[in-house]
Specification:
Elements: E1 10-16, E2 22-28, E3 37-40, E4 44-48, E5 58-62, E6 69-71, H1 82-93, H2 104-120
Antiparallel strand pairs: 1-2, 3-4, 4-5, 5-6
Length: 128
């Protein structure tokens, strides 16, 4: 859905893996969303109360009851980027061209998925 500013304002998608796992994603510029996340599996669910892209709490709730556990990480907002800067410095010092924590191939795979979502939504960039 286009935004009045001329950008793509909203998109939702369901991603499937070969093993049957799914992810439901939604992004919008039309509202201030809570930016929460839940990762659910057979053993329980991890809840990130949000904003999930910042350091903060992670709550584990086991399937079928049991004691919920919380891990609390100090909230630092965008200051958390110092971890990325430290990793870049470590890689440069060790003569590495990329980090083994997030190799370039993983970033390219993510971009391919994003491009496929864009194409399926009929979103094309100039020059494509």
């Amino acid at each position: 859905m286009p935004h009045p500013a001329g950008v793509n304002g909203q998109v939702g998608t369901v991603l499937n893996t070969e093993r049957g796992a799914q992810a439901v994603l939604h992004t919008t510029l039309f509202s201030d969303t809570p930016t929460t996340a839940t990762v659910a599996g057979t053993e329980g669910a991890l809840h990130l109360p949000g904003p999930f892209h910042h350091p903060g709490d992670v709550l584990f709730t086991p399937t079928g009851g049991g004691t919920a556990r919380t891990y609390t990480e100090p909230r630092t907002a965008h200051e958390g980027l110092h971890f990325e800067a430290a990793e870049v410095a470590r890689c440069i010092k060790n003569g590495q061209l990329e980090t083994p924590l997030r190799p370039l191939a993983d970033s390219i795979a993510t971009m391919r998925v994003m491009d496929e979502i864009r194409h399926r939504c009929g979103i094309n960039f100039p020059g494509e």
